[in-house]
Amino acid sequence: MSSTASTQTPAPSLHIALVGNPNCGKTSLFNQLTGSRQKVANYAGVTVERKEGFFTTPNGRAIRVLDLPGAYSLDSTSPDEDVTRDVCLGRHRSEPRPEMLVAVISATNLRLHLRFLLELKQLGLPVIVALNMMDEARRHGLQIDVAGLQADLGMPIVPVVSLNRAGVMPLLQALDLPLPAPPAPLPAGIDPHMEVRRLLAAYVIDPSAGTDRLTDRLDRLFLHPVWGPVILLVVLFVMFQTVFAWAQPLMDGLDSGISTFGQIVLKPLPDGILRSLLADGVIAGAGTVIVFLPQILILFLWILALEESGYLPRAAFLLDRLMALAGLSGRSFIPLLSSFACAIPGIMAARTIQNPRDRLVTILIAPLMTCSARLPVYTLLIGAFVPHRTVLGIFGLQGLVLFGLYAVAIVSGVIAARVMTRGVKSEEHPLLLELPPYRRPNLRSLALGLWQRAVMFLSRVGTIIVSLNVLLWALSSFPLPPAGAPGAAIDYSLAGRIGHLMQWVFAPIGFNWQICVSLIPGLAAREVAVSALATVYAIGATDDGATDKLLPLLSTQWSMATAFSLLAWYVYAPQCISTLAVMRRETGSIKTVLWAAAYLFGLAYLAAFLTYHITRALTGVP
Amino acid sequence: MRLSRVKVRAAEPAPYYRGTELMLYLDTLPKGAHAVIEKIEQRAPLDPIATRLEELGFVPGEAVQVLATGPMGRDPIAVRLGTSRFALRRGEAARVGLRTAA
């Protein structure tokens, strides 16, 4: 390889795609190749949409690379495998056919991965085989005759270790070489399974039969009929406790930083429209949302780490029976867990579900899984109305309430799914899920995932959230009240009037007009509801000091019943517009979307109504 | 086969009679026991689940072992197949016919 690496003129740019089975380490190879130079079409979690990235080889060849969803076969059984098949065959509507495939196979699972590789030979595309996880295979005592296998397969094989930069160098060097000839397809009449058996017998020495002792030991614990579910429950519980507890110091720091920043920026400005726009519209709005960045990142850290470690499919195994009660299978668990980060990737991840009905029901209940955009609302209200106390010595009461809100949402999801699948003649809900070996999560991959999420969140704050807040500020400030009018200026504004009108609908569930106003921009992005409240209260405030602290303000102005009613509302609240749009795209049916919005609105209203009146009765307010 | 090492409890469903021959199926294989796949049965013409099982490597001649069963009852089961592990529901596993004789 190094003989041609000395040529100095870079070869023309190249468009390649990474293909492979799920769990072959494809995504970590992609991250290693492209670093931060990637455009992510999906969010955290499983690759369900293609991901695009760019990198340059040592010789300066510019490469565009696609990371395709993992597939077991080109004969696809689920919508995510369709993407892989269509791109490989050049049939995808918006993606040109790649010039070359990099087939990623794991040395630790050759029997499964070689079969798919043989299938790729039929495509007539040049293929380089990236033989991943060679380090792990060697540790298990596996020896592979790479040269022999390469000659037999008719495709160049480069051993890679996708965990570090040096480990992917062989692949980078191979990409500098001229494209290999497309491999000859497997002759008709040869059973690919027999062919795999022959290849393994001829080129692989495997004294320990490739079993991963650590995974066996961990599975005995994690899949144990009693300890398995207990551990799962503890993991989920600790996850939500840390989201609250670990984030707090960081959030306090950000909060005071934003206040200081606001004071510095606003100091030289004279009183007037500009100052009001900056203080009440931009800083009060964006600032209240940015504070939640640590919480959202911690939640994502958990989801990414659980995903990378290989624990998620075990959780799906443990919860399969529970999901069966809801008329679904364990397969629905992974999309639903992603929905705790955001319903959008969750709905897209539902593509991995083969049964169309299971997929539809999963999409419909995904919005019930508490997405991270709801965290700001929960945090604000819990912070204002739930005392900061320790229960049973170790649990924070606030964390417990948060856990309870999540639990209520999950139970509602199960019931909703049960109702939706009721009366359907029982058909098969396939599980058929691979349980990959456990792996230590790669720090670089985690960091990259978190960084992408942070960028996405901050750009959301910078674009949608700030513009919505500015719009809301304008609506709340104009028209100006007539000179000498009594009361707060906001009562005369457009937003004030809309809020008062909406109160006809929302007064029975205890919402005041300020909440009503904040519900509207909350449709575009849920976390905006918090900043909208900040803006509305900032403009509505008669004295100047009220701009900075929403939390103490709420705890004095709202009754506990109103706060809990709003919490209940947000457990079910109609989804944000982007969720509805993704639902429309994934189901292709506007009727489904309308039905979803209607049932969630109904549930939200009912839950808020009950919560409001029960809390009022309990707190002794007439 | 190492079946002798495994205590088969009375509660475990016994291998039962399907079609014309006595055959053990993967859904009734006791936890811990090893067996070799004899055939994959199609439930319908072009049964997609049978096809997927074959693509995942459930083909005649491969060794399987039941690693774990679900927390409630015997559904789902975790199965080792060569170097891979899979979670299957009972209905899926019932398509996998086994031979236990060594």
What is the strand and helix layout of this fold?
The complex is a heterodimer of chains A (622) and B (102).
Chain A: E1 14-20, H1 26-34, E2 38-39, E3 51-56, E4 62-67, H2 79-89, E5 100-106, H3 110-120, E6 127-132, H4 134-139, E7 143-144, H5 146-153, E8 157-159, H6 165-176, H7 192-203, E9 204-205, H8 213-222, H9 227-245, H10 247-266, H11 273-290, H12 293-309, H13 311-325, H14 333-338, H15 343-349, H16 356-365, H17 375-385, E10 390-391, E11 395-396, H18 397-421, E12 433-434, H19 443-477, H20 494-506, H21 513-522, H22 528-540, H23 550-557, H24 560-572, H25 577-587, H26 590-619
Parallel strand pairs in A: 1-4, 1-5, 5-6, 6-8
Antiparallel strand pairs in A: 2-3, 3-4, 7-9, 10-11
Helix pairs in contact in A: 3-7, 9-12, 9-18, 10-11, 10-12, 11-19, 11-22, 12-19, 15-25, 16-18, 17-23, 17-24, 18-24, 19-22, 20-21, 21-22, 24-26, 25-26
Chain B: E1 17-18, E2 21-22, E3 24-25, E4 34-40, H1 48-55, E5 63-69, E6 77-81, E7 84-88, H2 90-93, E8 96-99
Antiparallel strand pairs in B: 1-2, 3-8, 4-5, 4-8, 5-6, 6-7
Protein name (chain A): Ferrous iron transport protein B
Domain Nucleoside transporter/FeoB GTPase Gate (chain A): 289-385, 459-589
Keywords (chain A): Membrane, Transmembrane, Transmembrane helix
Short characterization:
The complex is a heterodimer of chains A (622) and B (102). Chain A has 622 residues and is of the alpha/beta class.
